[in-house]
Amino acid sequence: MLSKTILRKTSGFLIAMMIVSMLVPVLASAAMTFKGTFSSNGTVSGQVYFDGAVGDAVYNQTDVTLSVYGKNGEYIKDVTVSYATYTNGTSYYNIPSNTVINSVYDAVYFQHSDGSVTDVVYRAPVTPPTGCTYCGGGGGGGGGSWPSGSTINSSNGTVSANELKNALSSYTEVTIKVTGDMVSIPVSALLNAKEGAVLIIVTDNGTYFLPLAAFDFEELAKSVESNVADLKLNVGVKKLTGDDAEAVTKAITAVGGKALANAADFSISIEGTNGKKADIDSFDRYVKRKLPVTTEKTKTATVALYNKDTKSLSFVPSIVSSTEAEFWRTGNSVYTVIELNKSFSDIASHWGKADIELLAGKLIVDGVTDTTFEPDRNITRAEFAALVVRSLGLSPVTSKAYFNDVTSNAWYTGVVNAAAKAGIVDGYEDGTFRPNAQITREELAAMVVRSFEYAGGKVEVDASAQAQILSKWSDANKIIWGQLEVAKAIKAGFINGMTDTTLETNGKATRAQTAAMVKRFLTEVKFID
């Protein structure tokens, strides 16, 4: 039902649009140009120019700051700049050298020194950050106005097709601010949107970032026996109440956790003119969402999915701040934010203690019992498949059989199939998976690298680099098939040698070693904080 284009969450250090905030109401029609450079670690240098009469009014002001935003509208930071002129009289504001802009998680847009622009360079934020002004308005105390077409208000649960269509003709991201917990969006307004267009559905209960490329409207129309132009896309972010909310509370209590947010049900359905509806429960990519945090965390925290059928909680890739949780998943469900402190009696003096406790507190690893972890016990291929599926927030797959020795009634069937579907695990030439075989360090390295790449991470290793990396290890010749994957795992810092000169890739991996590797790759792709 959904588009097969794969676009996963990307983590990068790209510079966002820079917007001047100062005590002059003259920016309503300012044409701003940034000329400079940015590096992969977020370091920025360059100058900001304003054109024409507006520029003349702006220059010579003191105490000027640039307010930096990500493409998704998130306020990042303020940068103090200095007024300067070239010998030819051209004025500009200079950004201090080695200025570092924090990482942002969405693609952003940038004008290079040659004048070329990667794409549009501005989209209005979801809400103006306190103390920052854009497009006029009084000084640093707030106010101002956002470009009129980029934000649409929905007070009655619907959106004007013409208003939305016009907004998408000018902006790659359009925010719909919803009064209530549901909005019905006319698909006819989405059909000619710019490539890469995203709808941001903002409610009091949470925010949904919907890339339009994730929807195959032709297939969706068939599912409800309707024409594409007549479809409605229903998006809901509903706060749970009553017995539903109590069920989530009980699940949190059962794992020894503490709720930091209200539980909310994120849902999407397609509706035809005949009233027929079809739920959209999954995507072919990670889709970003946000939940407001009601209680500030004091220890490790995570977004958790609540499964209504099993009445249990599971990990969702997420970053939790004092005010909100940002998370990514390929499906819809009920989500909340929890805080959990979990340890085990047999890891008190173990080298993997910190990693194990971190992942346990995020519902990624389980103990062998409630009080023991057995960190040095070897782990099976099925057990690691389960760990990978949990760490990526994937749903079990039971609709297809991938291996002839993974039976339909085994505890690991759904997770092994999910890992196979994601391209993370492979079988053997005879069609088996060998779920109960102990995993080797070579297999572990390969699966961690594939998990990292599935989550949007990148590590480049060509033939020359591979040879150079492996040459440092005296037993590299014992790698059977995974030379490239092992080299990538070493370069990315996911795997360490067992000694200064040996990898022991043919050795069996332990529960502590797998926890350490999973923690490293999740941290690298910013799926945990």
Give a quick summary of the entry.
The chain has 529 residues and is an alpha+beta fold. It has three domains: 132 residues, no CATH class; 189 residues, Sandwich (Chondroitinase Ac, Chain A, domain 3), CATH 2.60.220; 180 residues, no CATH class. It contains eleven helices and 22 strands.
Low-confidence stretches: 1-31, 52-58, 102-149
Rg for CA atoms: 25 Å
Number of helices: 11
- Give the CATH topology of the largest domain: Chondroitinase Ac, Chain A, domain 3
Helix content, binned percent: 10-25%
Number of strands: 22
Instruction: Determine and state the CATH class of the largest domain.
Output: Mainly Beta
Q: Structural class of the helices, strands and pairings? A: alpha+beta
Strand content: 15-25%
N-to-C terminal Cα separation, in Å?
33 Å
Q: What gross morphology would you assign?
A: globular
Average pLDDT number: 81
Count structural domains: 3
Let me know the largest β-sheet: 8 strands, antiparallel
- Please give the CATH architecture of the largest domain: Sandwich
Topology:
Elements: E1 18-21, E2 32-38, E3 43-50, H1 52-58, E4 65-69, E5 75-80, E6 82-85, E7 91-100, E8 151-154, H2 161-170, E9 173-178, E10 182-186, E11 198-202, E12 207-211, H3 217-223, E13 232-239, H4 242-254, E14 258-259, E15 264-271, E16 277-279, E17 282-292, E18 301-307, E19 312-316, E20 318-320, E21 324-331, E22 334-339, H5 353-361, H6 381-392, H7 413-421, H8 441-454, H9 463-470, H10 483-492, H11 511-524
